[in-house]
C-alpha cells in the first residue's frame, strides 16, 4: 500500500490503515472515475489536506485511537469559502443514532457524513460524488471571492492614483496662478500702469485662485455655494467691516464650473459696489441671499445680490468687463440666466440656475459671517486694495 503523493484539489483522501480497506476503497473510487489518494496515518492525511483535496474518507477507528486535534484545528482554520467534506466509515453496530461518538466527530470536524459498514460500493460512490459536488461549489465561491477582492484592490489602486494626480494637478494650477499673478504685477509695473489697474487685475486673479482653493479642498467634486460666497466676500468684509455684506441661504452644492463663475461674478459685483454702489458710502449694505426650489430630477437655484442704503443709482451709460462677465460669462456657465437691474435705491443682480442631480440639500443655513477663512491668498501684496472703499 503506497501513499499517493500527487496533489490535486479534487483528490479523495483515504485514511483506512487496517487490512486491505484502503486498497479496496481506492479501487472502488478509481473505477468510478475519482482520484483516490491513500494516506498512511493522520499526520499524512493532514499533510495531504494542506496540499489540497476534495474530500476525505476516514474509518472511525482512526478517530477513536488517534488524537485528531491537528485535523480539527485545520477545519477550524478554514477560510470563509471552505467547508471540507469528510465521510466517516462508521463501525458495524446497532445504527448510527446509537453511536454517541458521531456527535463528537461532527462537532470537531464540521462537514461530516457517516456511512455505516458494511455498505454497498454504489452507496460509497454516490456519497463521494455528492461531497465532491459540494467541494466544487466551494471552489467556485473561492474564485468569485478572489476576483471580487482583486477588483476591489484594483479599484483602490486606481483611486489612489487618481487622488495623486488630482493633488499634483491642484498644486500645478495653484503655482501657475501664482506665476501669472507675478508676471502681471511685474509687467504692469514696467509698463507704468496705474496702481488701480494693477490692483484690479491682481484681485481678479486672486478671486479665481480662492475659488480654486475651495474646489481643491473638495477634490473638485463641487463646492458649497455659501463657502464660495464667503471666500469671495472675505476681502471686502475685511476692508469695510463684516456686517456690510450679509450672506444667507440653504446649504447647496454647486458643480465646479458654477462655483468658479459665481466666485468671479461676486468679485465683480462687490468691486462695483465699492466703486459706485452701496459699499462706496459708510451706510450702504449688500445682502446676498439664495434659495432652492425642487423640480423634477433637478433643483432651481435663485440667488439675489441686493444693494441698499447706498448712493442714488442711475442706469449706466457704458458697460465694462464686470457687467459683461456677470451677464454673459456667468449665465453661460450656470445653465441659467443672470440679470442686473439698476433701480435708484441700489443695484440688484438676480441669478437663476438649474442644478441637476443630487448634491443639493435644503437645510436652512444661518447668514454667513465667516470672514476669516483662507485669507492667505488675499494677504498677498496688492490683493486687498480693491476691498477698500475708494478714497
Ligand atoms: N453697484 C453699482 N452701483 C451703481 N452703478 C453701478 C454699479 N455697478 C455698476 N454700475 C455702473 O455700471 C457700469 C458698468 O459696470 P462694469 O462693471 O461693467 O464696468 P466698470 O466697473 O466701469 O469697469 P470694469 O468692470 O471693466 O473694471 C459702471 O461704470 C457703473 O456706472
Ligand atoms: Mg466693474
Automatic annotation (TrEMBL):
GO terms for molecular function: ATP binding; protein histidine kinase activity. Keywords: ATP-binding, Coiled coil, Kinase, Nucleotide-binding, Phosphoprotein, Transferase. It holds the Pfam family HWE_HK. It comes from the Bacteria. Residues 373-391 have a biased composition (Low complexity). It catalyses: ATP + protein L-histidine = ADP + protein N-phospho-L-histidine. Residues 355-391 are annotated as: Disordered. Residues 168-251 form the Signal transduction histidine kinase HWE region domain. Residues 145-172 form a coiled coil. Its EC number is 2.7.13.3. PANTHER family: HISTIDINE KINASE, TWO-COMPONENT SYSTEM SENSOR PROTEIN. This is histidine kinase. It comes from Phenylobacterium kunshanense.
Amino acid at each position: 500500500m503506497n501513499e499517493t503523493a500527487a496533489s490535486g484539489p479534487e483528490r479523495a483522501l483515504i485514511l483506512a490503515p487496517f487490512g486491505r480497506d484502503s486498497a479496496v476503497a481506492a479501487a472502488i473510487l478509481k473505477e468510478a472515475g475519482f482520484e483516490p489518494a491513500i494516506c498512511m496515518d493522520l499526520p499524512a492525511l493532514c499533510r495531504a489536506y494542506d496540499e489540497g483535496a476534495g474530500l476525505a474518507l476516514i474509518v472511525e477507528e482512526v478517530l477513536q485511537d488517534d488524537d485528531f486535534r491537528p485535523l480539527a484545528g485545520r477545519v477550524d482554520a478554514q477560510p470563509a469559502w471552505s467547508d471540507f467534506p469528510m465521510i466517516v466509515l462508521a463501525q458495524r453496530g446497532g445504527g448510527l443514532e446509537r453511536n454517541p461518538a458521531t456527535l463528537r466527530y461532527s462537532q470537531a470536524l464540521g462537514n461530516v457524513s457517516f456511512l455505516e459498514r458494511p455498505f454497498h460500493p454504489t452507496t460509497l460512490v454516490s456519497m463521494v460524488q455528492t461531497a465532491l459536488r459540494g467541494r466544487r461549489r466551494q471552489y467556485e465561491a473561492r474564485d468569485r471571492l478572489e476576483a471580487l477582492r482583486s477588483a476591489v484592490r484594483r479599484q483602490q489602486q486606481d483611486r489612489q492614483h487618481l487622488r495623486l494626480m488630482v493633488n499634483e494637478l491642484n498644486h500645478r494650477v495653484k503655482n501657475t496662478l501664482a506665476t501669472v499673478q507675478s508676471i502681471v504685477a511685474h509687467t504692469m509695473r514696467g509698463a507704468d500702469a496705474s496702481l488701480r489697474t494693477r490692483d484690479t487685475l491682481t484681485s481678479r486673479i486672486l478671486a479665481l485662485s480662492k475659488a480654486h482653493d475651495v474646489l481643491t479642498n473638495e477634490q473638485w467634486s463641487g463646492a458649497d455655494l455659501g463657502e464660495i460666497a464667503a471666500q469671495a466676500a472675505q476681502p471686502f468684509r475685511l476692508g469695510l467691516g463684516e456686517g456690510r455684506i450679509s450672506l444667507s441661504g440653504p446649504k447647496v452644492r454647486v458643480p465646479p464650473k458654477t462655483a468658479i463663475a459665481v466666485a468671479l461674478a461676486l468679485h465683480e459685483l462687490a468691486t462695483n459696489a465699492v466703486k459706485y454702489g452701496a459699499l462706496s458710502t459708510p451706510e450702504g449694505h449688500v445682502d446676498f441671499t439664495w434659495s432652492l426650489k425642487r423640480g423634477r430630477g433637478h433643483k432651481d437655484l435663485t440667488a439675489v445680490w441686493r444693494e441698499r442704503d447706498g448712493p442714488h443709482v442711475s442706469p449706466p451709460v457704458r458697460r465694462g468687463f464686470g457687467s459683461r462677465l456677470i451677464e454673459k460669462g456667468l449665465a453661460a456657465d450656470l445653465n441659467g440666466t443672470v440679470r442686473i437691474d439698476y433701480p435708484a435705491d441700489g443695484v440688484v443682480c438676480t441669478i437663476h440656475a438649474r442644478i441637476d442631480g443630487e448634491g443639493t440639500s435644503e437645510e436652512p443655513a444661518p447668514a454667513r459671517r465667516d470672514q476669516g477663512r483662507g485669507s492667505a491668498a488675499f494677504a498677498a501684496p496688492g490683493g486687498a486694495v480693491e476691498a477698500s472703499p475708494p478714497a
